[in-house]
Amino acid sequence: MPDRSSQCGVSLIEVLVAMLVLSVGLMGAGGMLAMSARSTHSAYLRSQVTLLAQGMADRMQANPLAVWSGDYDGVYPGAALRDCATGCTPNQLAAYDKGAWSSQLAALLTADTRASIACNSSGLAYLPTAEQLALRPPFGGSCRMTVRWIEQGIGALGFADGGHARQTFAWEFQP
């Protein structure tokens, strides 16, 4: 029969080791949850940027006279929302679109989001008229849209490390 005095405290050490292993496992699970939440937010921001960019490209495609006049070129957000309830010229519609897109960028993305649109009509042989634009032939000009925002960084264990990752969405298209 083993000596009872040599067995004292062994079960206490086993319990402490088990608690240590459990706490390390729970810290790992918490880190994975934090990283999952941050990755989900990153995917949300990227989806919003893609949807907003496509929406602005659609607006520009619907108003080609203003596109090739340079009315959509600029830095966003920054344009004030203009009222077009009573009807607008192509230039006024472009101002309305710029204001609407600026407010969407500010509302749906991070506060430090910046965007720019620059259309290059150097491929155009001439500036098309409204009648020619109705026929929708290819004109050769293109536009470049860039959206930049900052996402909070993720450390090695999944916790926010205080760093920031600058993200850029750049798209060249022909409206």
UniProtKB/TrEMBL annotation:
TM regions (residue ranges): 12-37
InterPro entries: N_methyl_site, Pilus_4_PilV
Endpoints of the signal sequence: none
Pfam families: N_methyl
Keyword tags: Membrane, Transmembrane, Transmembrane helix
NCBIfam families: IV_pilin_GFxxxE (TIGR02532), type_IV_pilV (TIGR02523)
Name the UniProt record assigns to this protein: Type IV pilus modification protein PilV
